[in-house]
Amino acid sequence: MRIKAYIFLIALCLSLTVSMSVYATPNIIGPDIRVIDNNIIVNISIADISELEKTMKSGIEQEIIFTVELLRVWKFWPDEFVVSKRIDKTIKYDNLRQQYQASSYNGISRIKKNFKDYNSVRNWIFSVKAINLANIKELEPSNYYIRVVVESKSIEHLPIVGFLMHFIPEVEMSMAKESQPFAIKVN
What we know:
Strand content: over 45%
Order of helices and strands: HEEHEEEEHEEEE
Number of domains: 1
Shape: flat
Distance between the termini: 71 Å
Number of strands: 10
Structural class: alpha+beta
Oligomer: single chain
Number of helices: 3
Protein backbone atom coordinates (compact mmCIF):
# COMPACT_ATOMS: atom_id res chain seq x y z
CA MET A 1 0.00 0.00 0.00
CA ARG A 2 2.83 2.40 0.85
CA ILE A 3 4.57 1.68 -2.42
CA LYS A 4 1.43 2.59 -4.36
CA ALA A 5 1.09 5.83 -2.38
CA TYR A 6 4.75 6.73 -3.05
CA ILE A 7 4.37 6.00 -6.75
CA PHE A 8 1.22 8.11 -6.86
CA LEU A 9 2.96 11.03 -5.09
CA ILE A 10 5.98 10.85 -7.37
CA ALA A 11 3.78 10.78 -10.47
CA LEU A 12 1.76 13.72 -9.14
CA CYS A 13 4.91 15.76 -8.41
CA LEU A 14 6.36 15.02 -11.84
CA SER A 15 3.16 15.98 -13.63
CA LEU A 16 2.91 19.25 -11.68
CA THR A 17 6.52 20.26 -12.35
CA VAL A 18 6.23 19.48 -16.06
CA SER A 19 2.95 21.36 -16.42
CA MET A 20 4.24 24.37 -14.47
CA SER A 21 7.44 24.52 -16.51
CA VAL A 22 5.41 24.65 -19.72
CA TYR A 23 3.61 27.75 -18.46
CA ALA A 24 6.81 29.48 -17.34
CA THR A 25 8.81 29.24 -20.56
CA PRO A 26 8.50 32.02 -23.12
CA ASN A 27 7.44 31.08 -26.61
CA ILE A 28 7.24 32.66 -30.05
CA ILE A 29 3.81 33.25 -31.54
CA GLY A 30 3.97 33.05 -35.30
CA PRO A 31 5.56 33.66 -37.66
CA ASP A 32 2.41 34.87 -39.38
CA ILE A 33 3.30 34.98 -43.10
CA ARG A 34 1.33 36.85 -45.76
CA VAL A 35 2.09 37.81 -49.34
CA ILE A 36 0.87 41.35 -50.02
CA ASP A 37 1.70 43.02 -53.37
CA ASN A 38 4.32 40.31 -54.06
CA ASN A 39 6.10 41.06 -50.75
CA ILE A 40 6.51 38.50 -47.97
CA ILE A 41 5.21 40.19 -44.81
CA VAL A 42 5.93 38.58 -41.42
CA ASN A 43 4.38 39.28 -37.99
CA ILE A 44 5.80 37.77 -34.78
CA SER A 45 5.40 38.18 -31.04
CA ILE A 46 6.51 36.63 -27.76
CA ALA A 47 4.24 35.25 -25.03
CA ASP A 48 4.79 34.06 -21.42
CA ILE A 49 7.64 36.44 -20.63
CA SER A 50 7.33 36.70 -16.86
CA GLU A 51 11.10 36.71 -16.18
CA LEU A 52 11.68 39.53 -18.66
CA GLU A 53 8.80 41.48 -17.16
CA LYS A 54 10.38 41.30 -13.70
CA THR A 55 13.70 42.56 -15.06
CA MET A 56 12.04 45.40 -16.98
CA LYS A 57 9.99 46.53 -14.00
CA SER A 58 13.11 46.61 -11.82
CA GLY A 59 14.65 49.34 -14.01
CA ILE A 60 17.41 47.36 -15.72
CA GLU A 61 17.63 48.23 -19.40
CA GLN A 62 16.78 45.26 -21.61
CA GLU A 63 17.49 44.67 -25.28
CA ILE A 64 15.34 42.25 -27.28
CA ILE A 65 16.60 41.23 -30.71
CA PHE A 66 14.26 39.77 -33.31
CA THR A 67 15.97 38.12 -36.30
CA VAL A 68 13.79 36.89 -39.17
CA GLU A 69 15.48 34.76 -41.85
CA LEU A 70 14.20 33.42 -45.17
CA LEU A 71 15.72 30.06 -46.13
CA ARG A 72 15.37 27.96 -49.25
CA VAL A 73 14.81 24.22 -48.86
CA TRP A 74 17.21 21.91 -50.70
CA LYS A 75 16.99 18.14 -50.84
CA PHE A 76 20.19 16.28 -49.96
CA TRP A 77 21.96 19.59 -49.33
CA PRO A 78 21.96 22.16 -46.52
CA ASP A 79 19.25 24.79 -46.74
CA GLU A 80 20.21 28.03 -48.47
CA PHE A 81 20.16 31.34 -46.60
CA VAL A 82 18.38 33.97 -48.71
CA VAL A 83 17.81 37.12 -46.63
CA SER A 84 17.34 38.25 -43.03
CA LYS A 85 16.02 41.27 -41.15
CA ARG A 86 16.98 42.25 -37.62
CA ILE A 87 14.94 44.45 -35.29
CA ASP A 88 16.50 45.64 -32.01
CA LYS A 89 14.15 46.83 -29.28
CA THR A 90 15.31 48.34 -25.98
CA ILE A 91 13.30 49.22 -22.91
CA LYS A 92 14.07 50.87 -19.59
CA TYR A 93 11.88 52.01 -16.71
CA ASP A 94 12.64 55.55 -15.56
CA ASN A 95 11.86 55.71 -11.84
CA LEU A 96 11.95 59.52 -11.66
CA ARG A 97 9.43 60.10 -14.44
CA GLN A 98 7.56 56.86 -13.74
CA GLN A 99 7.47 55.89 -17.38
CA TYR A 100 8.92 53.31 -19.74
CA GLN A 101 11.36 54.49 -22.39
CA ALA A 102 11.41 52.20 -25.41
CA SER A 103 13.08 52.30 -28.78
CA SER A 104 13.09 50.18 -31.91
CA TYR A 105 15.80 50.05 -34.60
CA ASN A 106 15.40 48.10 -37.84
CA GLY A 107 18.73 48.99 -39.48
CA ILE A 108 17.31 52.05 -41.23
CA SER A 109 15.22 54.04 -38.78
CA ARG A 110 14.96 54.40 -35.02
CA ILE A 111 11.66 54.95 -33.25
CA LYS A 112 11.59 56.17 -29.64
CA LYS A 113 8.46 56.12 -27.50
CA ASN A 114 7.53 56.77 -23.88
CA PHE A 115 4.79 54.77 -22.17
CA LYS A 116 3.04 55.31 -18.85
CA ASP A 117 1.16 52.00 -18.90
CA TYR A 118 2.99 48.67 -18.76
CA ASN A 119 0.37 46.82 -20.85
CA SER A 120 0.83 49.13 -23.84
CA VAL A 121 4.63 48.92 -23.68
CA ARG A 122 4.43 45.14 -23.34
CA ASN A 123 2.42 44.86 -26.56
CA TRP A 124 4.81 47.19 -28.39
CA ILE A 125 8.13 45.74 -27.17
CA PHE A 126 7.31 42.02 -27.47
CA SER A 127 5.82 42.08 -30.98
CA VAL A 128 7.05 43.03 -34.42
CA LYS A 129 4.51 43.83 -37.10
CA ALA A 130 4.80 43.98 -40.89
CA ILE A 131 8.41 42.99 -41.56
CA ASN A 132 8.89 43.19 -45.32
CA LEU A 133 11.24 40.26 -45.82
CA ALA A 134 11.54 39.85 -49.60
CA ASN A 135 9.79 40.30 -52.92
CA ILE A 136 8.69 36.97 -54.40
CA LYS A 137 9.44 38.17 -57.96
CA GLU A 138 13.14 38.17 -57.06
CA LEU A 139 13.06 34.60 -55.70
CA GLU A 140 13.48 31.41 -57.70
CA PRO A 141 10.56 28.96 -57.71
CA SER A 142 11.12 26.54 -54.84
CA ASN A 143 10.09 25.73 -51.26
CA TYR A 144 11.05 28.25 -48.57
CA TYR A 145 10.60 28.62 -44.83
CA ILE A 146 11.11 31.34 -42.26
CA ARG A 147 13.20 31.02 -39.11
CA VAL A 148 12.65 33.44 -36.24
CA VAL A 149 15.30 33.89 -33.52
CA VAL A 150 14.57 36.02 -30.44
CA GLU A 151 17.29 36.93 -27.94
CA SER A 152 17.27 39.12 -24.88
CA LYS A 153 20.07 40.58 -22.83
CA SER A 154 20.59 43.19 -20.15
CA ILE A 155 22.44 46.27 -21.30
CA GLU A 156 23.28 47.53 -17.83
CA HIS A 157 25.39 45.41 -15.53
CA LEU A 158 25.76 45.78 -11.81
CA PRO A 159 29.10 47.36 -10.72
CA ILE A 160 29.91 44.42 -8.44
CA VAL A 161 29.63 42.01 -11.31
CA GLY A 162 31.82 44.12 -13.64
CA PHE A 163 34.99 42.14 -13.10
CA LEU A 164 33.14 38.82 -13.58
CA MET A 165 31.93 39.66 -17.10
CA HIS A 166 33.78 36.68 -18.59
CA PHE A 167 31.64 34.30 -16.53
CA ILE A 168 28.26 35.90 -17.22
CA PRO A 169 26.58 34.98 -20.51
CA GLU A 170 25.89 37.92 -22.81
CA VAL A 171 22.54 36.54 -23.99
CA GLU A 172 20.08 35.79 -21.18
CA MET A 173 17.35 34.22 -23.30
CA SER A 174 17.47 32.77 -26.78
CA MET A 175 14.74 30.90 -28.62
CA ALA A 176 14.00 30.01 -32.21
CA LYS A 177 11.07 28.82 -34.26
CA GLU A 178 10.66 27.77 -37.87
CA SER A 179 7.58 28.06 -40.05
CA GLN A 180 6.14 25.34 -42.22
CA PRO A 181 7.66 25.25 -45.71
CA PHE A 182 5.74 27.18 -48.35
CA ALA A 183 6.07 27.13 -52.12
CA ILE A 184 6.83 30.03 -54.39
CA LYS A 185 5.65 29.23 -57.90
CA VAL A 186 6.84 30.46 -61.27
CA ASN A 187 6.01 34.18 -61.69
